[in-house]
């Protein structure tokens, strides 16, 4: 099992904010796939934790601790208000509520990865991991298929520039 470097991925910058958000979804998918492969890897090894498993657990924790909250904030500041302007308040409200649900699911799951990083694996957590993956994938699909196209239609070029600047600024990049 190879670890996934978090710095690789599509070479999209903040100057194209919706493309950046989509690239973040690509990285989310890579982390979810890594979580699935990690579970399979541990099952194949009879629960024996090795360096690859420890590193994969650390990679997943780093992503969902750092990048995912920033991504959700980007959506809550820029995408969801645009959805509401487009008459899609119910969709924006549901996606925002799912952010809270995803955060709670992550906080429940993270200790299982921290234990794994410390050489402790309990196969009983596998269904929890599977539920997290399924929940996140449904959420991302709704954003990609419905939310982003509707929000992008509501945001003019000037607002896109401000959106890009704010996203980069919050990350200390501009």
UniProtKB/TrEMBL annotation:
Name of the protein in question: Hemerythrin HHE cation binding domain-containing protein
One Pfam family from the record: Hemerythrin
Family annotation (PANTHER family): BLL2471 PROTEIN-RELATED, HEMERYTHRIN-LIKE DOMAIN-CONTAINING PROTEIN
GO annotation, cellular component aspect: plasma membrane
Gene3D superfamilies, per the entry: nmb1532 protein domain like (1.20.120.520)
InterPro entries: Hemerythrin-like
Taxonomy, superkingdom: Bacteria
Residue span, Hemerythrin-like domain: 17-151
């Amino acid at each position: 099992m190879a670890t996934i470097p978090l710095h690789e991925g599509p070479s999209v910058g903040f100057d194209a904010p919706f493309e950046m958000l989509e690239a973040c979804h690509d990285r989310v998918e890579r982390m979810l796939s890594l979580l699935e492969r990690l579970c399979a890897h541990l099952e194949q090894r009879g629960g024996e934790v090795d360096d690859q498993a420890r590193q994969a657990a650390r990679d997943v924790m780093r992503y969902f601790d750092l990048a995912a909250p920033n991504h959700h904030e980007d959506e809550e500041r820029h995408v969801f208000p645009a959805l509401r302007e487009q008459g899609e308040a119910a969709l924006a409200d549901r996606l925002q509520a799912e952010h809270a649900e995803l955060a709670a699911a992550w906080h429940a799951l993270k200790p299982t990865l921290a234990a794994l990083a410390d050489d402790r694996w309990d196969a009983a957590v596998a269904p929890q991991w599977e539920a997290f993956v399924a929940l996140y994938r449904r959420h991302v699909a709704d954003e990609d298929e419905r939310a982003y196209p509707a929000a992008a239609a509501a945001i003019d070029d000037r607002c896109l520039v401000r959106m890009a600047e704010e996203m980069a600024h919050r990350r200390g990049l501009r």
